Amino acid sequence: MTAPAALMADRAKAAEIRASLSAAILPLPDPLRSDREALRAAHADLCELSDAELWRERERCRMRLALDDEADAWVTERLARVRSEEVRRRRDGR
Fold it and tell me: Nearest CA to 50 among 80, 84, 85?
């Protein structure tokens, strides 16, 4: 294999690994699978998460966006909704 071909193969393998990691870190919801997944898809589950769970969800969103060059728009929206929930909790003294 030539050097450019090997480099392209390495990049393709790295992209595949990043995609697998990002899917494991923050799987996209399947709203038809269960009521819980439907709530998650609509971000309606965030108010039920503990502060620690909300923090972890924010970090998972950030990691997925860092790893996935073509992240689903839901991930970006999820991060914005998580941040809004964190602001709401601080404002409400929770």
Answer: 85
Query: How far apart are the C-alpha atoms of 37 and 3, rounded to whole Å?
Result: 45
Percent of the chain with pLDDT over 90: 70
pLDDT at 4: 73
CA atoms within 13 A on the CB side of 71: 24
Q: Where are the alpha helices (DSSP H) in the chain?
A: 3-25, 35-41, 51-67, 73-91
Containing structural domain, residue 23: 3-91
pLDDT, position 7: 63
- Counted domains in the chain: 1
pLDDT of residue 3: 67
